[in-house]
Amino acid sequence: MTHVLRATCTHSTDHVVAAHMTRKFAIEVGFDERSADEVAISAAELVGNAVRHAGAGVLELRAIEGPRAGIEIVVRDRGPGIASPELALVDGWSRGGMLTPDSMPTKGLGRGLGAVQRLTDAAEIRTTGRETVVTARRYVGPPSPTRSAMVTFVRDG
Ligand SMILES: Nc1ncnc2c1ncn2[C@@H]1O[C@H](COP(=O)(O)OP(=O)(O)OP(=O)(O)O)[C@@H](O)[C@H]1O
Ligand SMILES: [Mg+2]
């Protein structure tokens, strides 16, 4: 049976629930404790983005089966889309501007998507003016050479 878990996230604390669920799922898939933490952080950042920047989102976790076990995290929302996806990946870029070393961030560090990029083996952002879908995959075992490779697809519409 394919292992899948889905949760609708609407509340400002749902990223915590998402982290908990994802961590548990990751351990079941075969990740060690540290890797499960990293996978959980990735899911929490994406859910946090969907709730904060789009109002709500749906988290889907899938076990990747076959010779290389892993987990696929998909977070989709029907928000306004990410205005500048390439900039959104830059650490310190938050809500349309760059935080300076002196600024005291009260809403975010602008490092969430950067963290996902660093903690997963492959990730893809699809964003339009109506929705955003981020898919991130992380495999059990040592880092793949492609870890930190973020592929961004931007579509108009
Ligand atoms: N699902 C989304 N819908 C719309 N805009 C988004 C979405 N996800 C990210 N963004 C935009 O990309 C920016 C960067 O996201 P990122 O997660 O890196 O930082 P942040 O959410 O501002 O802060 P934090 O470090 O707390 O996550 C956000 O400030 C927001 O403008
Ligand atoms: Mg964020």
From TrEMBL:
Keyword Transferase: yes
InterPro entries: Anti-sigma-factor_SerPK, HATPase_C_sf, HATPase_dom
Pfam families noted in UniProt: HATPase_c_2
An MF annotation (GO) of this entry: protein serine/threonine kinase activity
Keyword field: Kinase, Serine/threonine-protein kinase, Transferase
Claim: Transferase is one of the keywords in the record: yes
Superkingdom, natural source: Bacteria
Residue ranges occupied by any Histidine kinase/HSP90-like ATPase domain in the UniProt entry: 18-137
Gene3D superfamilies linked to this entry: Histidine kinase-like ATPase, C-terminal domain
Matching PANTHER family: ANTI-SIGMA-F FACTOR RSBW, ANTI-SIGMA-F FACTOR RSBW-RELATED
Name recorded for this polypeptide: Anti-sigma B factor RsbT
Source organism (scientific name): Labilithrix luteola
Taxonomic classification: Bacteria, Pseudomonadati, Myxococcota, Polyangia, Polyangiales
